[in-house]
Amino acid sequence: MTEGVHNRIALLRAEQGVTRRELADALGVHYQTVGYLERGEYSPSLAIALRIAEFFQVPVEAVFSLAPFPRVTDLHRADPGEASSA
């Protein structure tokens, strides 16, 4: 059984306004590698995963998971009271 690694790299890049090329330069990899990672076509080494998490200043578990991440719209529907309590 082959397990895929799911990630939030594209989401984090969009939130922080970072291009694939900027992230690739910071990681010391080719910009196409970032695309492969985002699409799940390539699983990162531990070193790359840790550097990505460090770059975005989040725990590695916030970027990578063995289980699919819930969609943001699903999270919002799951807890409708969250927005009104803020």
What does this 3D model show about the protein?
By secondary structure, this protein is mostly helical. Helices cover 58% and strands 5% of the residues. The protein is built from seven helices and two strands, in the order βαααααβαα. The chain has helices spanning 9-16, 20-27, 31-38, 46-56, 60-63, 72-78, 81-84; strands at residues 6-7, 64-65. Strands 1-2 form a two-stranded antiparallel sheet. The radius of gyration is 14 Å and the shape is globular. The model has no long low-confidence stretch (mean pLDDT 87).
Name its key features:
86 residues; mainly alpha; two-stranded antiparallel sheet; 7 helices
Strand content: under 5%
How are the strands ordered across the major sheet?
1-2
Strand count, sense and closure of the main sheet? 2 strands, antiparallel
Please bin the fraction of helical residues.
55-70%
Number of strands: 2
Quote the average pLDDT: 87
The radius of gyration is 14 Å
Task: Briefly note the structural class of the backbone.
Answer: mainly alpha
Q: Unreliable segments (pLDDT under 50, ≥5 consecutive)?
A: none
In brief:
The chain has 86 residues and is mainly α.
Annotate the secondary structure layout.
Layout: E1 6-7, H1 9-16, H2 20-27, H3 31-38, H4 46-56, H5 60-63, E2 64-65, H6 72-78, H7 81-84
